[in-house]
Amino acid sequence: MKRKYLIIGSLSFAHFFAKAQSVSDTDSIKVKKTEIEMVYNHYLQNGNNSAVTGGIGTEKLTVYGPALALRNVSGKNAFTLEMGADVISSASTDNIDFVVSSASVRDIRTYMNSSYSRQLDKQRLQLNAGLGLSVESDYLSLSGSLGIIKKNKNLQRTLSANIQFYKDDLRWGRLNPDYYRPVGLIYPSELRYKAWFDVYTRYSYNLKIGITQIMNKRNTLGIFPEFSYQRGLLSTPFHRVYFNNDYLAVEKLPASRLKGAIALKLNSFVGGRVVLKNAIHGYTDNFGIHSMAFENETAIKLRPYFTLLPNIRIYSQGGSDYFARYKEHQFD
Questions:
Q1: 276-300 burial, b for 16+ CB within 10 Å, e for fewer?
Q2: Residue 255 near residue 234, CB atoms below 8 Å
Q3: Cα(156)–Cα(211) distance, integer angstroms
Q4: Alpha-carbon distance values, 318 to 156, 258, 293 (Å)
Q5: Do the Cβ atoms of 58 and 45 come closer than 8 Å?
Q6: What percent of the chain has a predicted confidence (pLDDT) above 70?
Q7: C-alpha to C-alpha distance for 300 and 311, rounded to whole angstroms
Q8: What is the C-alpha to C-alpha distance for residues 215 and 280, in angstroms, rounded to an integer?
Q9: Cα dihedral value 290, 88, 66, 184, nearest 10
């Protein structure tokens, strides 16, 4: 079993602008507020079981992730727009073509997500919907979501449910200057003598449920179960598999997958200008992957409209049932 330990750090700055409209004595007050949040994530990974080269070689990876989020609230309506890019430096993905590996090899993912929500029933009921788009050199992802949030009469408990849908097209070529269109699945250079898959799409369906309870003036507790189902091309076409008889093939995984996750979150006001946001995450699926994670985000309010949000996450994961070391896969 392979086990990884990853530490991820992020730093974000948020600035808020609010403006109250002029109203007469008989009008209800409508407040307009715009929030602008700039976030930078830095992700580091290491290991020596790269699937690109069949279970050997470096998994060293660095991701530089700037992002920008805009949120506008006007009365009962709220609109959010998020956009960003992940610049990926990988010493293994260039081995798709057997090019000499180097840490300077780059790939990039760009994404944009938008959402709309509306408050109903005297602020106790909220409906929301969203659309998303993500593009990388070897895939295009489209997503949509619908959700509902309901609070009890004294506003101490909140129930939520959200349904998400993703369609991923794993064909390569959209960011290549010779094509700028989807051409086909990309295989390792020595395995391009045939088409290993007759599908190139993947569909994902997620159901997220949330229950939060205000315990007292300082603490809020939440539990968030999640269930997912995937079907379609779940393999990565450019991953090599070396069998124990020296046969070489492309990675081939089952065409469906079930996932389950749960998160426990505790937000605590410790006094002054500091709020601690702690979370424990658990995950399992029918591929045999199990994981645990601990996360802390400390909100430090420096000024009334300026908040510093340092974040740390420690993650531990066991290997999949389909994982085997280099040349240890059994040939049937």
A1: ebebebebebebebebebebebebe
A2: yes
A3: 11
A4: 38, 17, 12
A5: no
A6: 88
A7: 11
A8: 18
A9: -90
| pLDDT digits 0-9 by tens, 23-32 | 444 444 466 7
Distance CA(53)–CA(57), nearest Å, equals 7
Cβ distance 191 to 240 under 8 Å?
yes
User: Which tokens in the block code for residue 22?
Assistant: 């002029």
DSSP line for 225-289: EEEEEEEE--S-TT-EEEBTTS-EEE----SEEEEEEEEEEEEEEEETTEEEEEEEEEEEETTS-
Residues forming a β-bridge with 248: 242
Structure tokens at 84: 């960003």
Q: Give the separation between CA 145 and CA 115, rounded to whole angstroms.
A: 9
Q: Which pair of tokens denotes residue 205?
A: 């369906």
Q: Express each pLDDT in 158-207 by its tens digit.
A: 999 999 999 999 998 888 788 888 989 989 888 999 999 999 999 999 99
Residues 6+ apart with CB under 8 A from 26: none
User: What's 25's DSSP letter?
Assistant: T
Contacts of 158 (CB under 8 A, 6+ apart): 149, 150, 151, 152, 210, 211, 212
Q: What end-to-end distance do the CA atoms of the chain give, in Å?
A: 22
Q: Is the pLDDT of residue 220 over 60?
A: yes
pLDDT in tens, 242-301: 999 989 999 999 999 999 999 999 999 988 889 999 999 999 999 999 999 999 999 998
